[in-house]
Design goal:
Blueprint (H helix, E strand, L loop, with lengths): L3 E6 L3 H17 L4 E6 L3 H4 L5 H4 L7 H8 L5 E5 L11 E3 L10 E5 L13 E4 L2 H10 L4 E4 L4 H9 L5 E5 H6 L8 E2 L14 E6 L3 H7 L5 H17 L7 E8 L2 E9 L6 E9 L3 H30 L1
Parallel strand pairs: 1-2, 1-3, 6-7, 6-8
Antiparallel strand pairs: 3-10, 4-10, 5-8, 5-9, 11-12, 12-13
């Protein structure tokens, strides 16, 4: 086993929090090793003035880190699981999955108003097509303001009055100790979370059993079951940041349940479906859910969105 384990991470405050959490947990479990962070800038970090959907969707925040993992500059990559594309590069795999943080989205408004109470025509900042479509579905009067940047940058723009409210992942807000800023935790009935939101991804080389053994102590079996079920759903839909897709799974008494959504960009069409079954069939159930939505019209929505983006 390596005397020094190198973790690749983005350099944002949240990414560093996540990587340092993994570092501390590994050092506690294995006092004989040293863990070092290697900060890597990704395409998503470099391009901040263009909406994610127009830059290339999923993979924007992981590709350069994966390249470092493949060529041996790092031993382990720590990502936000929701940033992971459905397909993993040859030679790499998702390792153990730690326990998930709350997967919900939160609304943070400048005047303390909840979503239902915001004034007619209020502006809400988000970089997510999934969030925008669901917001417009319940509040077609609001204006969506494209919002990129790290969590601090987004809060600063809200505080400067550039928009009336913003929507963020609860996990990042909680991890950085900013819960007092939350105006409202959005009910999944209104805002279904992104696939794997709140979970961390520990990505390793398939040919590196030593690192796999070291990080195995961080695995949370229930989280792994749910997240892999959600990702199977996303993979079947070929979902990305370029399409409004959401998926939220739960596990209770050995039974896996998952709700999924596909919407068009303006939220006028919002398709919902659910599926459930034994936990050991989580991946198959995720695929079954995707098939349900495709049969109910999601295939046409996804084709239209993809065709429209190709023309741009």
């Amino acid at each position: 086993m390596p005397a020094v384990l190198k973790i690749g991470t983005r350099g944002s405050k949240l990414a560093l929090w996540q990587a340092n959490w993994v570092k501390a947990a590994l050092e506690k479990a294995h006092p004989d090793i040293m863990v070092e962070l290697v900060v890597i800038k990704t395409k998503g970090d470099k391009i901040q003035d263009v909406p994610l959907a127009k830059v290339g969707g999923k993979g924007l925040f992981v590709k350069e880190i994966e390249e470092a993992l493949l060529d041996g500059r790092i031993d382990l990559a720590v990502h936000s699981m929701k940033d992971m594309p459905g397909d993993i590069p040859n030679g790499l795999c998702i390792g153990p999955i730690p326990e998930r943080e709350i997967p919900l989205d939160v609304l943070i408004s400048g005047n303390g108003c909840k979503l239902a109470d915001l004034e007619n025509g209020a502006s809400i900042g988000t970089s997510s097509l999934r969030r925008a479509a669901q917001l417009l579905h319940v509040r077609p009067d609001i204006r969506i303001i494209p919002l990129r940047g790290n969590l601090d940058t987004r809060l600063r723009k809200l505080d400067a009055g550039q928009m009336d409210a913003i929507v963020l992942a609860a996990a990042g807000v909680r991890r950085l100790g900013l819960e007092e800023r939350v105006t409202e935790y959005l009910d999944p009935a209104c805002m279904l979370p992104a696939v794997a939101q709140g979970a961390l991804c520990l990505e390793i080389r398939e040919s590196d059993p030593n690192t796999d053994r070291l990080v195995s102590v961080l695995n949370h079996p229930e989280t792994r079951t749910v997240v892999l079920g959600e990702r199977a759903f996303l993979h079947r839909l070929e979902g990305s940041c370029q399409v409004p897709v959401a998926g939220h799974g739960t596990l209770e008494n050995g039974r896996f349940s998952i709700k999924g959504m596909v919407a068009n960009l303006d939220g006028t069409v919002r398709l919902l479906a659910s599926a459930a079954g034994r936990a050991d069939r989580a991946r198959e159930i995720g695929i079954e859910l995707a098939e349900k939505l495709l049969a109910r019209g999601a295939k046409r929505i996804l084709q239209e969105l993809t065709a429209g983006q190709t023309k741009q």
